[in-house]
Amino acid sequence: MAQDSHDAVREGKKLRRSFGWLAFLGALLVVAGIVGLIYTGLATLTSMLLFGWLLLIGGVVGLLHAIESRGTSYFWLAVVVAALNIAAGLVVIRHPEGTAEALTMFAALLFLTGGVFRLVGSVVVRGPQFGWTLVQGAFGILLGLFVLFDWPDSSRYVLGVFFSLALLFDGLGLIAIGVGGRRIVSMVTPPAPPTPPKPSEEDQEQSNN
């Protein structure tokens, strides 16, 4: 019974330590998100470089996997996809600013299209979420127009803001999971069993006699 209690306490400490590291990682992401919101240009450049390296590494891994599976029916398709990823990664790494401009234009058109569809759909359907859908559509259109009218200058901060907000909210989520997990583990972990007191010198002499 005592051994089981010791094992439960040990496992509880491991879980609390793991959740603590999770909360620490979340704090780092929150700090990175705040820094990115302050220096949006640097955040945009960083996000483009990360995107390029992910494409490049993914393309290399896909090419190696295609080579290992040569002789199969999808060999050439895997080679083409891997080559496209490698080429796209190299282009993004060598021209991060041009890539940011292209992606910002794509994001603006996406906001405009989604906003128009939501706005028209809310007016036509008039469902129970009519007001909320109408507000979402109008906000998407305004955001798309704002980014589009300020293009290409908007490419210096739009992607950086989105990237930093993603880091910030992911970090807050990890902090919530880490802190909440530590509390739950502390609630369900039994208290450590009391350690027996060490015998004094007089007790040791009496036991020897």
Give an overview in words.
This protein has 209 residues and is an all-alpha fold. Helix content is 84%, strand content 0%. Helix 2 packs antiparallel against helix 3, helix 2 packs across helix 4 and helix 4 packs antiparallel against helix 5. The protein starts with a helix and ends with a helix. The mean pLDDT is 75.
Count helical runs.
7
Poorly predicted regions are: none
The portion of residues forming beta strands comes to under 5%
Rounded Rg: 28 Å
* Proportion of helical residues: over 70%
Summary?
The protein is mainly alpha-helical and 209 residues long. It has helices at residues 2-38, 40-68, 75-94, 96-125, 130-149, 158-188, 201-208.
Explain the layout of strands and helices.
Blueprint: H1 2-38, H2 40-68, H3 75-94, H4 96-125, H5 130-149, H6 158-188, H7 201-208
